[in-house]
Specification:
Largest sheet: 4 strands, parallel
Radius of gyration: 16 Å
Number of helices: 9
Mean pLDDT: 92
Helix content: 40-55%
Distance between the termini: 19 Å
Number of domains: 1
Order of helices and strands: EHHHEHHEHHEHH
């Protein structure tokens, strides 16, 4: 239905799923749940790409909301590397998995999960092509201090893309 009506989907972690969100079962403490969000989002990305969703639905667009993005470079590198040797398992994945990610997925900036050294965050932004992949999100009323670190690293053009233009293009506004 989303593809038929040219609508983007949004995935936001949370709620009460029928199955535990972690391989080790239900989290006992909030810190386990919160720290595990990145893994849950990575699993969604891997599933969408490797199950061939973007080959079956070439105009499908999915925004991953409030799952962070600092994990993107390592996932892109790993999934591309593994695909090279295992592509016979997924013959319908015709391009590098990271290409599907760059074409079909967008990620909101919250939570930033910035490393202690701002230069490392700058490297992450560069490594994943963040200025084209990220969408602004404030997570209001929650306050994440690392958002300021991110915004301080961006050029005026990058801020404009992340805070406005990327969402306009992705959601066809």
């Amino acid at each position: 239905a989303a593809v038929k009506h040219d609508l983007a989907l949004g995935i936001h972690y949370g709620g009460a799923p029928g199955h535990p969100p972690t391989p080790t079962g239900w989290p006992s403490y909030f810190i386990e749940d919160y720290a595990n969000m990145a893994q849950v989002f990575q699993s969604q990305v891997i599933s969408l790409v490797c199950e061939g969703a973007f080959e079956r639905f070439p105009s499908l667009r999915v925004a991953l909301i409030e799952g962070g993005f600092t994990w993107l470079p390592s996932l892109m590198w790993r999934i591309d590397k593994e695909w090279k040797g295992l592509r016979h398992n997924t013959p319908y994945v015709r391009r590098r998995p990271s290409e599907y990610m760059r074409t079909h997925l967008r990620f909101t900036i919250q939570p930033v999960d910035a490393p202690p050294n701002p230069l490392h965050l700058a490297q992450i932004l560069d490594q994943c092509g963040a200025e084209d992949l990220l969408l602004y999100a404030s997570d209001y009323p929650h306050r994440h201090e690392s958002q300021d670190v991110l915004l301080d690293l961006l050029t005026a053009d990058q801020k404009k893309k992340i805070c406005s233009e990327n969402a306009r293009a992705f959601f066809r506004l």
